[in-house]
Amino acid sequence: MRIGEVARQAGVSVRALRYYEEQDLLQAERSSGGQRQYPDSAVDRVHLIQQLFAAGLPSRSVREVLRCVYSGTVSPGLLDQLESERARISGRINELLAARDRLDGVIATTRNPPPECTHAQALDGPALSAAPSSTHRPAPRTTDR
Amino acid sequence: MRIGEVARQAGVSVRALRYYEEQDLLQAERSSGGQRQYPDSAVDRVHLIQQLFAAGLPSRSVREVLRCVYSGTVSPGLLDQLESERARISGRINELLAARDRLDGVIATTRNPPPECTHAQALDGPALSAAPSSTHRPAPRTTDR
DNA sequence: CTAAAACCTGACGTTGGCGTGAGGTGCAAG
DNA sequence: CTTGCACCTCACGCCAACGTCAGGTTTTAG
Question: Which parts of the sequence are annotated with region: Disordered (chains A, B) (predicted)?
């Protein structure tokens, strides 16, 4: 399989695949003419890479995870690193949930403005239902299992 | 209130506050000597800005949201834009949930490697329980309400 | 055999939210 | 007055995952 086909099947750009090789995330054989040759499994591997990138892992971490998954060897300290990555992801999810709730408040306010805003404009504080609380959110619902 | 105090209370850098002004997200009066003067409400406003940035909104969108929230005026098309931002956030959350599940699979495999990997190394496909499916994930649980 | 895809290797550009000096000013205290 | 800290305005640096152009080679279709 050549690079263009892998790119199509995996839904990424050719440039991305070359970048993955440069970052040592995805190896390829070379044909006599110097062109990259991939096994079919490369497509799945690229999917995994994409998901890990989507999770916000840096390429260094992705590299280690890939080594672990595809070789069965466990480098020391990797587990701790994975756990901390997991924690970061959970934290990020909670951030996004909070932000989405906040945005929902704004949307609701926008959709039907409350009477207190119909006549009074340019309040110097946010008196809308989007309600920025003074110090700290109560951390409504978490997602950490 | 001067810039350093706002920065401390809001937990951001002075540089960030100046950047917000440059991006027209946070205005400030100036003292006779040219120093920025903020009302107390600026701290909450900065919190809101931070949350919107955390949600991945670009500064242009943040600017519009702020105008809406703090003035009560609804610019045309803003609602659609907010909805699409919300959708993006939800999509991002689902990506992260999927990635976290994937990572959990890797972690489980790492913690106690399955027998099939104890003797066979260098499988050309991922036969581990992290299990990259061939084409498309079934989109397990969504978070869009 | 030839033209057109598809591929190759550099190498520079992009994007955003700031970090980080450099070099100068405002302001309250001693 | 002068020390010293907080503040000011440029303006370049950064990081990551590629996009993109340039200029040349390999492979494939006819």
Answer: 110-145
